[in-house]
């Protein structure tokens, strides 16, 4: 799971996004925009005081009056020691009046990419999402005509200067990351100063920004007397900072102006030092517990992120009606404590490792609840017509009938068998066989992948927990079983780390399956923070609650029971 995925949420150049230069221009020839350069700015991106990437913003006006704004960003980090890069380029075109003509966005996460294109039509914004040969389309209605990025930035600058020290600005802008038209609210606080993690003081006009794309997150920005951006700080569990640079970070400059102050190293070499492994929930007393033989744990959680954790667990209990096996819940709130403001500041949870028993599940009846039926559909990340899905399903069916052993690893390299007709989807199947099958099918357990699509998972047979969960959801839906991806925390020797698994709807409730750790071994103690539907192009929100919890919570073991 990419614990930083949600940072690519806000499309403005000063927002916390992850992008880099891609040379492909998707809509109009670049020569049409070489008449008049309006802007050329560089920014550095910092996580927890470490420079991990850069942002480059350029704006041109063509002879015809069209304005083209390009935002190029990159971030280089590590995931438990594995290098991981995220790059993105957004191109905005607007006309003389500031009306939006088009938006294009290309995102690549360690080789897994997607392209988003958006154009306004009559009362709707037509959005096309490309992942390889797969194309999905969304129609977003709008009330006011969408405007371009450059025009909105000019309006913001004018609003900051005209606010007489304080004031509030609101606007709406399409976000290629969330595939929505997001609302933004800026509040001018007046003159002041803000210190960054490098020890520098930034003085100027302070502005607070909130976005519907990052609910509950407040970014504090500093502008100079001409309303030019200088610096911003966004706390999302960790500290994300954006710092304006005076020149291209690749250009020659004194060592003190490159990388970290006084390091004497080029800024480019500072990247990739931040490791997601540091984003854990530490657990006091973990060394005294053998996770592989633990049935249940009782833990006390403290810290500023406990209220977010409590709300997520409470919502999960209501949604799942408690995932129960023999009358016990896999996740249960034992007690809470509130501070003087009525907010939860201590939370006691009981986690139980309850891998489901072997069970053959038949296709559910047509009388599924309306909110569940949608979890049978394909789309976006899920091409349920891929014939390789039917071939994999048939392996478990034959294993049930005493034929081909599902444990064998000689999987077919391609698709196209007679089983791909989809007729088999009307029969039941052993879902635990599918859980084991996915574990064996993905032979390269690698953290070097972003959010790969189904075709990529089936072809490369590689990935981490998100790729395992995606493939199992695809197989379950192909078999006619409602399923979705759950995300949250799993307890390991490192403490709690981010993880994704699967929820299957059967017998009027959701139950957990985990193809990364079949049977709950060696790790089966989990805290569910939310769910996503991989058939929808809305992955940007997956990690926000993870960041808010992992950077602000610690746990202590109060008791445990062995298996």
Quick summary:
With 563 residues, the protein is an alpha+beta fold. The protein is built from 8 helices and 29 strands.
β-sheet strand percentage: 35-45%
Coarse structural class? alpha+beta
**How many domain units?**
2
Q: What does the average pLDDT come to?
A: 80
Described by strand count, sense and barrel closure, the largest sheet is:
14 strands, antiparallel
Strands ordered across the widest β-sheet: 8-7-6-5-4-3-2-1-14-13-12-11-10-9
State the end-to-end distance.
Answer: 28 Å
**Apparent shape:** globular
Strand tally is 29
- The total count of helices amounts to 8
Q: Low-confidence stretches at least 5 residues in length (pLDDT < 50)?
A: 1-33, 253-272, 322-328, 403-407, 414-426
Helix content: 10-25%
Taking all Cα atoms into account, the compactness measure Rg is: 25 Å
Topology summary:
Blueprint (H helix, E strand, L loop, with lengths): L35 E12 L2 E12 L5 E13 L2 E13 L5 E10 L2 E10 L2 E8 L2 E8 L7 H14 L4 E9 L4 E16 L5 E11 L7 E5 L5 E8 L1 E8 L37 E2 L9 E9 L3 H15 L3 E2 L2 E2 L1 E8 L5 E9 L7 E2 L8 H4 L13 H14 L28 E2 H11 L2 E2 L8 H7 L1 E2 L1 H14 L4 E10 L2 E12 L2 E5 L12 E7 L11 H7 L3 E9 L1
Parallel strand pairs: 15-29, 23-24
Antiparallel strand pairs: 1-2, 1-14, 2-3, 3-4, 4-5, 5-6, 6-7, 7-8, 9-10, 10-11, 11-12, 12-13, 13-14, 16-20, 16-29, 17-18, 19-20, 21-22, 25-26, 25-28, 26-27
Could you characterize the architecture of this molecule?
The protein is of the alpha+beta class and 563 residues long. It has two domains: 5-276, no CATH class; 357-542, C8orf32 fold (Roll), CATH 3.10.620. The protein contains eight helices and 29 strands. It has helices spanning 149-162, 306-320, 370-373, 387-400, 431-441, 454-460, 465-478, 544-550, and strands spanning 36-47, 50-61, 67-79, 82-94, 100-109, 112-121, 124-131, 134-141, 167-175, 180-195, 201-211, 219-223, 229-236, 238-245, 283-284, 294-302, 324-325, 328-329, 331-338, 344-352, 360-361, 429-430, 444-445, 462-463, 483-492, 495-506, 509-513, 526-532, 554-562. The strands form six sheets. The protein has a 14-stranded antiparallel sheet with strand order 8-7-6-5-4-3-2-1-14-13-12-11-10-9. Strands 15-29-16-20-19 form a five-stranded mixed sheet, covered by helices on one side. A four-stranded antiparallel sheet has the order 27-26-25-28. Strand 25 and strand 26 (495-506) form a beta hairpin. Helix 5 (431-441) crosses helix 7 (465-478). It is globular and about 70 Å long. The two termini are 28 Å apart. 47% of the residues are buried. The model is unreliable at 1-33, 253-272, 322-328, 403-407 and 414-426 (pLDDT under 50).
């Amino acid at each position: 799971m990419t614990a930083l995925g949600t940072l690519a949420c806000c499309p403005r150049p000063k927002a916390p996004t992850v992008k880099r230069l891609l040379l492909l221009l998707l809509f109009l020839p670049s020569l049409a925009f070489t008449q008049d350069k309006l802007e050329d700015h560089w920014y550095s991106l910092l996580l927890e005081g470490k420079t991990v990437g850069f942002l480059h913003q350029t704006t041109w006006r063509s002879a015809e009056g069209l304005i083209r704004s390009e935002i190029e960003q990159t971030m280089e980090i590590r995931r438990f020691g594995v290098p991981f890069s995220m790059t993105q380029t957004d191109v905005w075109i607007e006309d003389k009046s500031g009306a939006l003509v088009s938006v294009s966005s290309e995102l690549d996460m360690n080789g897994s990419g997607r392209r988003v294109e958006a154009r306004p039509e009559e009362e709707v914004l037509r959005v096309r999402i490309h992942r390889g040969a797969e194309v999905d389309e969304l129609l977003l209605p709008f009330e006011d005509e969408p405007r371009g990025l450059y025009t909105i930035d000019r309006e913001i600058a004018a609003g900051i200067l005209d606010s007489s020290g304080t004031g509030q600005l609101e606007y709406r802008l399409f976000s290629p990351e969330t595939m929505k038209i997001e609302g933004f609210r800026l509040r001018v606080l007046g003159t002041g100063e803000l210190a960054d993690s490098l020890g520098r003081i930034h003085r100027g006009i302070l502005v607070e920004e909130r976005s519907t794309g990052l609910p509950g997150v407040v970014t504090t920005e500093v502008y100079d007397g001409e309303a030019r951006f200088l610096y911003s700080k966004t706390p999302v569990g960790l500290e994300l900072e954006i710092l304006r640079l005076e020149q291209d970070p690749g250009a020659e400059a004194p060592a003190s102006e490159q990388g970290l102050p006084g390091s004497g190293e080029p800024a480019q070499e500072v990247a990739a030092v931040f490791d997601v492994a540091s984003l854990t929930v530490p657990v006091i007393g973990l060394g005294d517990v053998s996770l592989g033989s633990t049935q249940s744990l009782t833990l006390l959680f403290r810290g500023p992120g406990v209220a977010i954790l409590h709300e997520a667990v409470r919502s999960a209990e209501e949604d799942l009606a408690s995932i129960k096996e023999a009358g016990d819940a896999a996740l249960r709130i034992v007690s809470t404590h509130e501070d003087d403001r009525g907010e939860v500041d201590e939370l006691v949870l009981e986690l139980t490792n309850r891998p489901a028993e072997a069970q053959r599940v038949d296709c559910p009846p047509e009388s599924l609840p309306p909110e569940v039926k949608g979890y049978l559909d394909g789309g976006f990340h899920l091409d349920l017509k891929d014939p390789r899905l039917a071939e994999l399903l048939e392996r478990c069916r034959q294993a049930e009938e005493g034929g081909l052993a599902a444990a064998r690893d000689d999987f077919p390299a391609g698709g196209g068998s007679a089983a791909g007709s989809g007729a088999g989807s009307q029969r039941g199947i052993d879902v635990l066989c599918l859980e084991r099958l996915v574990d064996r099918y993905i032979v390269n357990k690698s953290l070097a992948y972003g959010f790969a699509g189904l075709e990529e998972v089936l072809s490369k047979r590689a990935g981490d927990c998100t790729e395992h969960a995606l493939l199992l959801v695809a197989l379950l839906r192909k078999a006619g079983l409602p399923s979705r991806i759950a995300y949250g925390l799993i307890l390991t020797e490192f403490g709690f780390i981010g993880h994704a698994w699967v929820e299957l709807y059967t017998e009027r409730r959701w139950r957990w399956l985990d193809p990364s750790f079949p049977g709950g071994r060696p790790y089966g103690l989990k805290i569910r923070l939310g769910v996503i539907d991989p058939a929808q192009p809305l992955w940007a929100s997956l990690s926000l609650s993870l960041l808010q919890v992992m950077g602000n919570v610690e746990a202590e073991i109060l008791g445990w029971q062995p298996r």
